[in-house]
Amino acid sequence: xxxxxxxxxxxxxxxxxxxxxxxxxxxxxxxxxxxxxxxxxxxxxxxxxxxxxxxxxxxxxxxxxxxxxxxxxxxxxxxxxxxxxxxxxxxxxxxxxxxxxxxxxxxxxxxxxxxxxxxxxxxxxxxxxxxxxxxxxxxxxxxxxxxxxxxxxxxxxxxxxxxxxxxxxxxxxxxxxxxxxxxxxxxxxxxxxxxxxxxxxxxxxxxxxxxxxxxxxxxxxxxxxxxxxxxxxxxxxxxxxxxxxxxxxxxxxxxxxxxxxxxxxxxxxxxxxxxxxxxxxxxxxxxxxxxxxxxxxxxxxxxxxxxxxxxxxxxxxxxxxxxxxxxxxxxxxxxxxxxxxxxxxxxxxxxxxxxxxxxxxxxxxxxxxxxxxxxxxxxxxxxxxxxxxxxxxxxxxxxxxxxxxxxxxxxxxxxxxxxxxxxxxxxxxxxxxxxxxxxxxxxxxxxxxxxxxxxxxxxxxxxxxxxxxxxxxxxxxxxxxxxxxxxxxxxxxxxxxxxxxxxxxxxxxxxxxxxxxxxxxxxxxxxxxxxxxxxxxxxxxxxxxxxxxxxxxxxxxxxxxxxxxxxxxxxxxxxxxxxxxxxxxxxxxxxxxxxxxxxxxxxxxxxxxxxxxxxxxxxxxxxxxxxxxxxxxxxxxxxxxxxxxxxxxxxxxxxxxxxxxxxxxxxxxxxxx
Length: 673
Prior knowledge:
53% of the residues lie in helices and 7% in strands. By secondary structure, it is α/β, with parallel strands linked by helices. The protein folds into two domains: 10-74 and 367-416 and 478-668, Collagenase (Catalytic Domain), CATH 3.40.390.10; 121-337, Neutral endopeptidase , domain2 (Neutral endopeptidase, domain 2), CATH 1.10.1380. The strands form three sheets. The chain has a four-stranded mixed sheet. It is globular and about 75 Å long. The two termini are 19 Å apart.
């Protein structure tokens, strides 16, 4: 998934190709990129990211309440202001059921004085349910409920081998620290994080008035460390074949008899499901052993800690501040907590996001934008068709399947064709904790209601007000929410080279996920099926392995390298997306003529500068560390330098020669297509 750009009208692009045309000024710079951000003292072939963004990197400070800075942090800020205005208007219209629901949810969260005055009273019923557990069977039943934590997770999704139907999946659940590396890596940095986590666990118990916090923290950290040793790495979890293990009740019982599967599934409405797909069998089996050999009291303490910590923002201020001090300051290096209204907007987007989305679309979306986006999607589809048709390493049987998959791509733009109905969600005007639990239960019941019915392809995984985009391999869909389609990522007044370099590359990236190391294992209908001949797959893997090796060598922090295998899918999508976007741009140029030189830059140079500008960004050290250990996306700098150095047209555009720091000999360059 690319956090980045999106698009342009062909008509505007055509007009801008003419020097005599007078058009509205782009939001950024004179042609769509703010050239004041560049550092022209840097040679493009030495550090293209620094060349394109060096002055901005030097002068732009990271806001106190953010883990990083750049376009992908700035645009959500303005979108949140727009959503806040909509929410406030909703609160002023209590006669409208949707607006009343949105307003009540938000206002209950925003009333910090009332939350403090109620103290721990709203929390007690949930903790009592944990305290009342007397047996391990009762423990497992409670762990299965949506609002409570357990060592395995259970969810409902489309079946990867039959995307027309829903199935149930289970696998390892998240722990208190971001990834298993935080429990297992040696060194002072990780030891200090574990020490701070231990102190946070003890603090949660102290704030809740529960005795022996230090001893409980000892046991909880030891438990999570044991669990982490048996969990799969983020790299291994990316393998869709390895994580597809259908099992019936007898097989589940043999795998992890400590979980009463029949009782647990029935308890949460899944009693009639004969088969469950297990994502990480060895981790589930190990979690079952921990259910049996870890004292019941420790599990209850763990669930108590997790419930309080996971819901700290709905509790008195001391809990909220303690949670941020660890998860914000310690883990990500963020000095200040975002103001409460921003967190309220994010909460609302997560709980009743499509209700908010309806309000957002009514105010901030036009059919003209949708038309422009679809136009460029069509152009990118044609570019990918050219690339696939001429890929010398792909044999004809595989090429035929690849073209069929491309033809079946389902692009969705702006907003869903139908929205989630939240009318059955009961919202309190005074109890934000109850609202959070009700939201979890509502989402689960919504998923339950879909079982036994054909998969609904109209559902969205993001809200219209989300600044992002995604590809779903099971649905073979690319989705671009409305909030992504605005400056700096979409500007119809910008130079066409900019829009192809930024927004075209974003579309190309998402489409490219259909052919990355993970997405390529799904066919045109979204089925997990090997449609590659052995010869073509071997050639593809050889290219991919070269890219893994390249990114493994990058060391953004001393001693912490990019994980080339973990980031492979995103890196392949970046490179393939850039190749397709450039092909689309050259198709445009062939139709309309070579563009003029502007401010001393050719059209091709502007294309690549725009691509680099779309990745404007930098992160705090601790946040960068967390990204490197568990995020499949490479840091911004390497999504520029690590990609363009593999692309021959970039060398030509900037006359990059042997001796330049980014130079790679032709035989070492990776070409997706």
